[in-house]
Amino acid sequence: MIPNEHDLPEISVRQLSLRNGSDKPEIWCAYKGLVYDLSASRLWRGGKHYEHWAGQDLTEEMENAPHLPSVFDKFKVIGKLKY
C-alpha cells in the first residue's frame, strides 16, 4: 500500500543519487515520482540489478523491463522525488 503522497518526505535527485549501494549503504530507486527502498532485495546487492543502477529514477527504463511495474509493490515507499 502506498502511503498518502502528501505525508511523504521530499527526496531530492541528489539525495537519491547517493543511495546507490556504494556512496551510502541504502539502495533507493524512484519510479513515477515515488522513491522506494530496495536495500533488502538480494537482486539489488551492490546497487545494480542487471543493467539498472540504484540511486536514480527508473521510470523510463521500466518501459523495456522484462517484468511489470508491479514489482515495486513489494518495496516500501519512503518519499516522493523532488526534481
Polypeptide structure, described:
The protein contains one helix and six strands. It is mostly beta strands and 83 residues long. The chain has one domain: Cytochrome b5-like heme/steroid binding domain (Flavocytochrome B2, Chain A, domain 1, Roll). The strands form two sheets. The chain has a four-stranded mixed sheet. It is globular, with a radius of gyration of 12 Å.
Question: How would you summarize what this structure contains?
Answer:
7% of the residues lie in helices and 27% in strands.
Task: Report the mean per-residue pLDDT as an integer.
Answer: 91
| Residue runs with pLDDT of under 50 for 5 or more positions | none
- Name the beta content range: 25-35%
Instruction: Give Rg in angstroms.
Output: 12 Å
SSE arrangement:
Layout: E1 10-12, H1 13-18, E2 28-31, E3 34-37, E4 48-49, E5 52-53, E6 76-82
Parallel strand pairs: 1-6
Antiparallel strand pairs: 2-3, 3-6, 4-5
Features:
83 residues, mainly beta, Flavocytochrome B2, Chain A, domain 1, 4-stranded mixed sheet, 27% strand
